[in-house]
Design goal:
Blueprint: H1 3-18, E1 28-31, E2 43-52, E3 56-66, E4 68-73, E5 76-81, E6 88-91, E7 99-108, E8 116-125, E9 130-134, E10 140-142, E11 160-161, E12 163-167
């Protein structure tokens, strides 16, 4: 095996071990329909329930929605945004409690066929452990506004599963940063890659 390919194989193996089944998955953009299939002026109601058995030391909500969102945690208004290019970053510790909790989001697409919600709740518990609640296919949604849907004890078992549109950097949104505006992803320059004899490296996209 060529030395470069052998090194690459060890890198892939190491990455697989580090990012195995116990690794935390990153949040995904989600919506009610696949990418480029959203309906103009569509409103979607999302829910994600989770349990807390420890007191929360810190809780930070980060996210955005194309085009707009209002977020409640356990029925309490927690965040609002109508500029998807500028993600919100909010301290929501006061809205959490021991036992059952829920994040409820009213998302809105103002026009066009592209829409998405991207959300992450970072938690630091009293014992020092950390937990993340992230948007993904474990979230549920409906396209109406049912009574009591913001409560943790609301029964959403009949709701549909959110559609995964891809992780941060997917679709037309670019890579979101805590500074607000999307950052353009940079491809690795071809002259920065060493390939075995007989192989050619080309830069396909930027």
């Amino acid at each position: 095996m060529y030395p470069a390919l052998k090194a690459l194989s060890w890198f892939v193996l190491s990455f697989t071990l580090l990012a195995g089944p116990h690794a935390s998955a990153a949040p995904s953009w989600i919506w009610s329909r696949p990418l480029n299939k959203a309906r103009s002026n569509e409103e979607v109601y999302f829910r994600k329930t989770f349990e807390l058995s420890e007191n929360v030391k810190k809780a930070t909500l980060y996210g955005t929605c194309d085009n707009a969102m209002t977020v409640w945690i356990n029925g309490k208004a927690s965040a609002k945004s109508d500029v998807w290019q500028t993600p919100v970053l909010v301290d929501v510790k006061a809205h959490l409690r021991d036992g059952a909790n829920v994040i409820a989001v009213h998302g809105r697409n103002d026009g066009g066929n592209i829409a998405g919600l991207f959300l992450k709740l970072d938690l630091e518990l009293a014992d020092g452990s950390k937990q993340a609640i992230e948007s993904g296919t474990s979230w549920r949604f409906v396209s109406e506004n049912p009574r009591g849907w913001r409560r943790a004890d609301f029964d959403d078992s009949a709701w549909a599963t959110a559609v995964d549109l891809g992780p941060n950097g997917s679709g037309p949104w670019g890579t979101l940063g805590k500074g607000g505006a999307p950052r353009k992803s940079e491809a690795l320059a071809s002259d920065g890659v060493t390939a075995p004899a007989g192989f050619k490296v080309e830069r396909i996209y930027n």
